[in-house]
Amino acid sequence: MRILFTGGSGKAGRHATAYLRDQGHRVTNLDWAPSDTPGIAHLTTDLTDAGQVFNACRAYASPDELEPGTGVPQYDAIVHFAAIPAILHRPDNETYRINTLSTYNVLDAATKLGIPKVIFASSETTYGICFADGEVKPDYLPVDEEHPTVPQDSYAMSKVVNEVTARSFQARSGIDIYGLRINNVIEPHEYREMFPAFMENPALRRRNIFAYIDARDLGRMVECCLQTDGLGYQVFNVANDDLSVSLTSAEVIERFYPDVPLKREMEEFETFYSNEKARRLVGFVPNHSWRDELAQ
């Protein structure tokens, strides 16, 4: 597939674009900063500028595309990861402006130019726990896509707005638009750097609902969505299968969630950030666990 990927120079994007490249896709990165991933074309783009986005969506990706003499080829899909990645990077209103406007521009261009699929990065923060002022606990466990999304912060607000915007564009166009509520992204080198502290002090993982997603498995999830057609508008939690601490699920519940209702029985080390819908609808099966990484 010929894929336009926004934000491919960022932490999650670097791994996802490399994964898609390795699956045989042709990937063009739109970002402020160039990608250092080999085999990925790059076009420096301000995604808050609608004209630049429309132009980039109908542009050659590299000189070899000039050779057939058949005009600019069409993109098969857009994967939109570009965003201010969290609070405290920019003033709150600027985070909100950039994230919502860039997403609107990408969806507007995709639907008007006939690109049949958009996969966009939403966030675990939509559930209102990660960046809350003080402690906010889930309404129930495990947290699935039906859980309320009522955040307090500008970053998560922008992600909730982006989901509403995406649903509206899908209703108008009929194309497939899938939102990924991505949990805390962990790169391979970060297991040894970060996880020993999580084992010693599990409370460090409370704001992430004790979950995580390996950056390589995030690329796998994107590929699963690219290969699954006809679902219309969907949002998916994206997390690995296991907890990010060495406690059992029962021990985490006893220590941190004694009064939070359970929707069902939990397996011994099962994530509280349910990925069941992604498994069921697009066939997502994570391959990487911190337990395996630390055992190497």
From TrEMBL:
EC number: 1.1.1.203
Rhodanese domain location: 2-41
GO molecular function: uronate dehydrogenase activity
Coiled-coil blocks: none
Keyword Oxidoreductase: yes
Short name of one Pfam family: Epimerase
Keywords per UniProt: Oxidoreductase
Gene3D superfamilies, sorted: NAD(P)-binding Rossmann-like Domain
PANTHER family on file: NUCLEOSIDE-DIPHOSPHATE-SUGAR EPIMERASE, PUTATIVE-RELATED
Stated name of the protein: Uronate dehydrogenase
Gene name in the database record: udh_1
